[in-house]
UniProtKB/TrEMBL annotation:
Pfam families assigned to the protein according to its UniProt record, in alphabetical order: Flavodoxin_1
Organism name: Photobacterium ganghwense
Lineage top rank: taxon: Bacteria
Stretches assigned to the Flavodoxin-like domain: 4-161
InterPro entries recorded: Flavdoxin-like, Flavodoxin, Flavodoxin/NO_synth, Flavodoxin_CS, Flavodoxin_lc, Flavoprotein-like_sf
Protein name: Flavodoxin
Family: Belongs to the flavodoxin family.
Reported cofactor(s): FMN
Role played: Low-potential electron donor to a number of redox enzymes.
Record-linked SUPFAM superfamilies: Flavoproteins
Keyword Transport: yes
Amino acid sequence: MANVGIFFGSDTGNTEKVAVMIASRLGLEAQDIAGLSHDIFDAYDLLILGTPTANYGEMQPDWDYFVPELEEADLTGKKVALFGLGDQIDYPDSYLDAMGDLADLVMQAGGELIGQWPAEGYQFNDSRAFRDGRFIGLALDEDRQPELTEDRVATWLASLGL
Ligand SMILES: Cc1cc2nc3c(=O)[nH]c(=O)nc-3n(C[C@H](O)[C@H](O)[C@H](O)COP(=O)(O)O)c2cc1C
């Protein structure tokens, strides 16, 4: 298995919970992005990055604080899989927007995005994470579809070969 690093930012614990779920399936530890610097990524070939969307389309504060680190990072040669959490019913016009913003930063840093996810089974109007008919990473909704999270995670990890 590739050397996998799992990182998350989380305000109310949902993204952390999923990061821990992913990590425990892989026998790894999930790391909170808060307070880290970009050289933490050097040790890994595959990064799994998780973010919720905060405050009507904004990045989660710890990821927001990490943006200058991502702008300095060189992710060339690394594969990066994203998972995003949001609420498609209360925020249908900005569902998972922050995952889209994170995707842009990863691509600017030279990372290769993997783990795109089909959009069937979701209700939303608009999302910056929705590109070419698919989500740019795994789309989760712990507010409206918590019962689907475990299966979605398992299917997604299998699609990544993990
Ligand atoms: C004030 C507020 C604004 C939010 N804005 C969005 C949004 O624009 N898009 C979205 O998909 N989810 C939005 N959400 C939902 C959160 O992303 C969702 O509850 C997520 O699971 C929280 O993850 P966390 O517990 O890791 O912080 C918002 C939640 C709150 C409380």
